[in-house]
Each structure stands twice: as C-alpha cells, then as structure tokens.
Design brief:
single chain; alpha+beta; 5 helices; Tox-GHH_dom; Tox-GHH domain-containing protein
Length: 150
C-alpha cells in the first residue's frame, strides 16, 4: 500500500464525521451494530468483533486515481479483512469499485466517477436525535424529556 497523502487522510476523516452525523440520525453507509454505532458516536470511528478499527477504503484508489483521493464520498468503511479482500489480497493492487461485503464481489466503476455509498436506515439504531440536538449545551435529561413529552 502506498503512503497515504494528507488529502487522502483528510477525506477519510471527513467521511467518519459524515458517518457520525448519519448514525446520530439513525442512518449509515453500512448497517452498524448498536455497539459500533455507539463507538462512532463516542469515538468517531467503529471497531469490528476483534477490536480492530474499520478502515476508510478509497473505492477509486488514491494511487491510481489521485483526482479522487480527497473526496470523502469516495470512501467506504470496511473491516481489515474486507479491506484486504477489496484489494484482491494485496494492497499493491489498485481498486476501482464498490466492495460488497455480503457477496465479496467488487462492482467496478470502469472509467466513470465513483458512486458514493448508499445511505441506509440502520436496522437497530441507538439514537435518532438530530446532530444539532446532541451538540446543544443542555443536560441529556432535558433533551430526552423534550423528545418524550409530545
């Protein structure tokens, strides 16, 4: 795997911020478990069953497609194993597609621009508060009380 540029790293950080906001709204780019969602909310990233952080994967690899390396919508979150599979077992390979972690197949983008990951409703969301409500400086009890007193 080539050394990541600051632009590529920034895209991954921005993608995690976007994912955190989505999770706060009960959505995500993959169906995170409640524990993974809580980790995204609390720590800004998620971990697999073995405690390893999910990795931001450039669907159009940064090395082969440098024009997309800074695009946060070109990022897909994969476990370490999925990430290796997306690269065909070697990080020296270039990627150009969406890796489907269910089928273990890559949907090739060809010469087209990347297709951002679909935003889905989480099957078991831990929260549906808006991002603005989370960052307001009010005690959690007041925020929850407001949600339940309609």
């Amino acid at each position: 795997m080539s050394r990541r540029t600051s632009e590529a790293s920034k895209a991954i950080r921005e993608a995690w911020v976007t994912e955190q906001q989505l999770v706060l709204e009960g959505k995500g780019t993959r169906d995170w478990t409640p524990e993974q969602q809580q980790s995204i909310i609390d720590k800004g990233k998620s971990y697999d069953d073995e405690g390893k952080a999910f990795e931001g994967h450039h669907m159009k690899s940064a090395e082969a497609y440098p024009e997309y390396q800074g695009h946060s919508k070109n990022i897909q979150f994969l476990s370490r194993i999925e990430h290796q599979e997306a690269y065909g077992g070697s990080y020296r390979n270039h990627t150009n597609g969406y890796y489907d972690s269910e089928t273990h197949l890559t949907i090739d983008f060809g010469e087209n621009i990347y297709i951002p990951c679909e935003v889905i409703a989480l099957s078991n969301p831990v929260t549906c508060l808006s991002f603005n409500e989370i960052i307001e400086e009010k005690p959690l009890e007041q925020k929850l009380e407001r949600k339940t007193n309609y």
